[in-house]
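Thread: Newbie trying to understand structure tokens

Hi all, I'm a second-year student working on a class project, and my supervisor (Dr. K.) asked me to get a predicted structure for one chain before our next meeting. I've only ever worked with sequences, so writing a 3D structure as a token string is new to me. If someone could post the tokens and maybe explain what I'm looking at, I'd be very grateful. Here's the chain:
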Amino acid sequence: MTMLLNNMLMGNAAVGVGSLALLVVLLLVVIACLVLFVVIIPIPLWIAAVFSGVRISIFSLVGMRLRRVPPAVILNAMIQSKKAGLEIDSQSLEAHFLAGGNVFRVVNALVAADKANIHLTFQRATAIDLAGRNVLEAVKMSVNPKVIETPCVTAMAKNGIQLQAIARVTLRANIDRLVGGAGEETILARVGEGIVTTIGSAANHTDILENPDLISKTVLAKGLDSGTAFEILSIDIADVDVGKNIGAELQMAQANADKDIAQAKAEERRAMAIANEQEMKARIREMEANLVQAEAEVPMAISEALASGNLSILDYYKMKNVIADTDMRQAIAGGDKSRK
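---
Reply by user tm_fold:
Sure, no problem. This is what the structure looks like when written as tokens:
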């Protein structure tokens, strides 16, 4: 009997331990489910959305978690647009987020455009944002135009005087042309080109100094904002300074170049004259050598003529007298020249 009682007590104890272990396991499972539920479903955000009038189901929040979309970003953007009087569904915001766009920037731009009575749709705003442009900054520029300053542009008038001008351009963003339109760099380049054209076409630099608005009128008349993402409201000339006298410098450079060319040609002629002189001297020396050689052969020719009988003694003496008379006349002529 005693052994039977002991066995019953041990069995009841084993059953109690097993039940306790089962309860602990169930409690852990419940806690894990609660933690998982809270992590997957942002209850505070859902409650805030409900009290803000944004209708979104818990399953949509779970889907956001599964699609790796932060529910806080989407819900906060929806709450902000709802309070501003705009209706934007969560699917559109999720699509823009997954495409790599900035959800808050788009929503802020839409709210600012709505308050400023600027027509801006959600599709255009997302397209501008995905194109890499700051859509919020564009809306702000539509309300408050931006002033940019050109670098110092240097140009020369027709009279050769250089002018240096700086212009301030007032721009307003054109939302319809933000996608595919040129940026501020193009505006600055076109304005600089207009300044150069205006100054270059002026007959005298004083015309520009007296009427700087000629530059503004010429640049505005060209319609430089075509094909850009901006609209030019005004162009104001901030400063015009007189630079160098480029015309005089060019004339001096041309004169120096002409002088160098003339000197080079004179040096060439001098070298040719020296070469001709050396050639003539060489020819004279050659002729003198030939004459000396010929004179050395004269006595031999005379002796051969005398020996052969072609020349008589009388003819020889007559020739000597003629030579002597010629030398005397040359000596007298030379003496007269020296006396003169």
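A couple of things are worth pointing out once you decode it. The beta strands are 146-149, 153-156, 161-173, 230-245. Residues 246-308 form the longest helix (63 residues). Feel free to ask follow-ups in this thread.
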